[in-house]
Design brief:
This protein is an alpha/beta fold and 859 residues long. The chain contains 27 helices and 29 strands. α16 packs across α17. The two termini are 62 Å apart.
Length: 859
């Protein structure tokens, strides 16, 4: 790796005339370390970049890390807390930020070195950080321009509020956990009517102190005569109206729902529709504030809930309670329950910016792979809400807004420009300004990544050449938060989409199909896997399993299997070396004459075509399997075995076989290099990372040779299959009788008799018009192959064995069918268990049918 990096091969060249191929690395958090999702994402990007680099494109794989606002602030605060240093008490903003930058220089960015262990080849010299000076300048310019265009504004709206970190957080940072809870039914007395009530249900009774209405559905006949009347909020003893709104569901509970606009996202929308008061009852700590009765002021929210329930019971307003399961929102980093909270924040008018981003995908300017993920993108953008971009943190891009003492807003890129604007506005020098304390959501700077990293707002050669980028590779979980926002910002500021293709990779799950998590103890560490199996084995496993739209079920056995593939290649190279197969620079594959050589070259050409098709269509599994099956199966298991006697002896074909073997092996190493860069270079002794991709002439290949060798493979495979099915001992040498053979088949048998006898363990080959007793049959082409085995195996014993095996398999199938036919099992079992049962059934059925065929033969 050090050799690659020092060579400069990773670098792009904006001055070259080569066609550009650009990938923007999704910037991992500066606090992060490599996990399996990163390993998959990085591997697939690296495969594409290496492939296009070898194809002669000017490749830019743009690396970098994200400043990860809240995560980084947490890490540094935790380290300071160990020294009894508290942000805000012992350190002011400037001092704290110095500590964060110190941490970043010494400890941040571990993940980029871990990517090197995987063999990733981005242009490290161009590595960016979302808080570096260039990107900070881009962020300020974008904010100011959008503000002046009316697309950024300040508004009082509901946000996800983290009471521990005292900041708004995004939906992505909220983890909804399903828990057992209670639903309480509460009576609200109707004003001026004796014993007249309306009953509402809630899982958060403390919020009733902020109720400003009760809603019923306009078509709910039960409440027609109550709409417009007033009811008393228990405890608060405040009158609120009964309103008609379609949000109330007549089928749910009593059909009446309490509306707390300042503490529920749905209620907030109802409140806006009906111009209801918005009473905020919480402070930043989620303690009850001065807007509630005095007895509750200052109480922690859950303590207030208990007190309210006791008081409701005393007032005879608590009708009842029921057990429910509901999703409770937690801060993914703080671990505390998140509150919807009414506060002043900065917003981007994403409903407006979303329109061209929607059209770009609909028109095909940007294409998703697999295409089904476009639906997720469309759903998100069609129902776009204003994006809350302010965060109450110190670490991040501080909002470029300054306030005069009277509240006048000055939004400029620098303090000097804001001061000049304020002085001009007020007609005096030295107007006192205070900067907005908030910083921007981390996703704001990430949204600019495809163009800010290329030097924007300056008109750089990189921006000119590499934007629009070729492909973005990312996970489905950030289509909404990152992909859509890059699309919006890219189109708005660059006038073009940021990427032509978006490839959405699958989740990496454990061997049972479960999501990896520390709590389950099933997390696989890519660095440990590299240590155990090698980077090549891990890379190839991830590539071979990356089927579009299908999650990867990873296991050590899978990786071990592909480590065996590495060993197979190594052994093939040693075999070639030991037998004097040296690469001849003058070798021309188009001139070979020996049929197996013509065939292996034709098969190589097909494998290369399928490999290229797979990579270019983002079907990585098909690309990997094309080169895997050719290398292990066609080349090692067939070609090397076919040619072994001639290679180790002396014949008219020996030199050509040696040259062909060396050339094909060299081509295999080159074609495999994007997926397995380490072992391929170790064996070849060449720097394949900088090599050219092989190109073959259209005329290369021989269809007649291919047909002939395919026949030979089918012949040997069928005989081997019959032997295995009939349990013929491996060492047993048997005769082969052929019936109905054409002259072509007879000629081929004569040519390849030695190979057939050696590889299928056949003593003799004869032709016959009869079907002898005690022979099993199979067909290849027009000819019937017959193997007399009655004297070699005990037919009765073999029939009994097959019947026993078939019976066992049928019992297994029956058990699985009973499980899958059990509605309760299907309803409650995890999806991965059901899938596992179905897979087991298919495998058992396939084996049973094969054994049944063998049993029929023995009849």
């Amino acid at each position: 790796y050090e050799k690659w990096e020092k060579s400069g091969v990773f670098s792009c060249d904006p001055a070259s005339n080569k066609a550009p191929y650009t990938i923007m690395m999704p910037p991992p958090n500066v606090t992060g370390s490599l996990h399996m999702g990163h390993a998959l994402n990085t591997t697939l990007q690296d495969v594409l970049v290496r492939y296009h680099r070898m194809k002669g494109d000017d490749t830019l794989w743009q690396p970098g890390t994200d400043h990860a606002g809240i995560a980084t602030q947490m890490v540094v605060e935790r380290q300071l807390a160990e020294k009894q240093i508290v942000r805000g008490r012992d350190l002011n903003r400037e001092q704290f930020l110095e500590k964060v930058w110190e941490w970043k220089e010494h400890s941040g960015g571990t993940i980029v070195n871990q990517m090197r262990a995987l063999g990733a080849t981005p242009d490290w010299k161009r590595e960016r950080f979302t808080m570096d000076e260039g990107l900070s300048r881009a962020v300020r310019k974008v904010f100011v321009q959008l503000y002046k265009e009316g697309l950024i504004y300040r508004d009082k709206r509901l946000v996800n509020w983290d009471p521990k970190f005292h900041t708004a957080i995004s939906d992505l940072e909220v983890e909804n956990k399903e828990q057992k809870g209670k639903m309480w039914h509460i009576r609200y007395a109707v004003e001026g009517e004796i014993a007249s009530y309306i009953t509402v249900a809630t899982t958060r009774p403390e919020t009733l102190l902020g109720d400003t209405a009760v809603a019923v559905h306009p078509d709910d006949e039960r409440y027609n005569d109550m709409i417009g009347k007033m009811v008393y909020v228990p405890i608060a003893d405040r009158l609120i109206p009964i309103i008609a709104d379609e949000y109330a569901d007549p089928e749910q509970g009593s059909g009446a729902v309490k509306i707390t606009p300042a503490h529920d996202f749905n209620d907030f929308e109802v409140g806006k529709r009906h111009d209801l008061p918005m009473i905020n009852i919480l402070d930043v700590n989620a303690h009850l504030n001065e807007n509630v009765p005095e007895a509750y002021q200052g109480m922690e929210r859950f303590a207030a809930r208990k007190k309210i329930l006791v008081e409701l019971e005393e007032l005879d307003a608590l009708v009842g309670e029921e057990d429910v399961k509901n999703a409770i929102p937690y801060g993914d980093r703080s671990g505390v329950v998140i509150e919807p909270y009414l506060t002043d924040q900065w917003y981007v008018d994403t409903p407006t910016l979303a329109k061209p981003a929607l059209e770009a995908v609909r028109s095909g300017e940007t294409v998703f792979h697999p295409k089904q993920y476009e639906n997720m993108y469309f759903r998100w953008l069609e129902d776009q809400q204003p994006w809350c971009i302010s965060r109450q943190l110190w670490w991040g891009h501080q909002i470029p807004v300054w306030y005069a003492e009277d509240g006048t807003v000055f939004c400029e890129e620098t303090e000097e420009e804001a001061q000049a604007a304020a002085d001009q506005h007020f007609g005096e020098a030295g107007v006192v300004l205070t900067r907005d304390e908030d910083v921007l959501d981390t996703w704001f700077s990430s949204a600019l990544w495809p163009f800010s990293t290329l030097g924007w707002p300056d008109k750089t050669p990189e921006l000119e050449k590499y934007y629009t980028t070729s492909v973005l590779i990312t996970g489905f979980d950030i289509i909404t938060f990152w992909v859509s926002r890059m699309m919006m910002m890219g189109i708005h500021f660059m006038g073009e989409v940021p990427f032509k293709d978006v490839y959405i990779h699958a989740l990496v799950r454990d061997s049972k199909g479960q999501k990896m998590s520390k709590s389950k103890g099933n997390v696989m560490d890519p660095l440990e896997l590299i240590e155990e199996f090698g980077a090549d084995a891990l890379r190839f496993t991830l590539t071979a399993m990356a089927a579009q739209g299908r999650d990867i079920q990873l296991s050590n056995d899978r990786i071990k299997g592909y480590r065996n593939f590495c060993t197979k290649i190594w052994n093939a190279a040693r075999y070639a070396q030991m037998n004097g197969c040296e690469l001849d620079e003058n070798f021309d594959p188009a001139n070979v004459e020996y049929t197996p050589n013509q065939w292996i070259i034709s098969a190589l050409k097909d494998a290369k075509t399928n490999l290229e098709k797979g990579i270019e269509n983002y079907r990585f599994n098909e690309a990997a399997n094309a080169i895997y099956s050719f290398t292990w199966g066609t080349f090692c298991d067939w070609y090397l075995e076919f040619t072994k006697p001639l290679l180790q002896g002396e014949s008219e074909h020996t030199d050509e076989i040696k040259q062909t073997t060396a050339w094909v092996l060299d081509q295999i190493l080159t074609l495999l290099n994007p997926m397995m860069p380490f072992i391929t270079e170790e064996i070849s002794g060449k720097m394949l990372t900088a090599a050219a991709w092989p190109e073959y002439s259209e005329s290369l290949g021989n269809n007649a040779a291919r047909e002939e060798m395919d026949w030979l493979i089918a012949m040997i495979s069928q005989i081997r299959s019959v032997r295995a099915d009939m349990n013929v001992p491996a060492g047993a040498q048997i005769d082969l009788l052929i019936k109905g053979a054409s002259e072509t088949t007879k000629s081929r048998v004569q040519t390849y008799a030695e190979i057939i006898q050696r590889m299928a363990r056949i003593v003799s080959i004869d032709y016959t018009d009869e079907t002898p007793k005690g022979a099993v049959q199979t067909v290849v082409g027009e000819a019937t192959l017959m193997l007399p085995i009655a004297d070699i195996i005990d037919l009765d014993q073999e029939r009994a064995r097959l019947n026993k095996e078939i019976g066992k398999l049928e019992a297994d199938i029956q058990k699985i069918d009973q499980k899958l036919g059990n509605e309760k099992f299907v309803a409650n079992a995890p999806a991965e268990i059901i899938e596992e049962q179905r897979t087991r059934r298919e495998a058992a059925e396939s084996t049973r049918d094969k054994l049944a065929g063998a049993l029929k033969q023995l009849g």
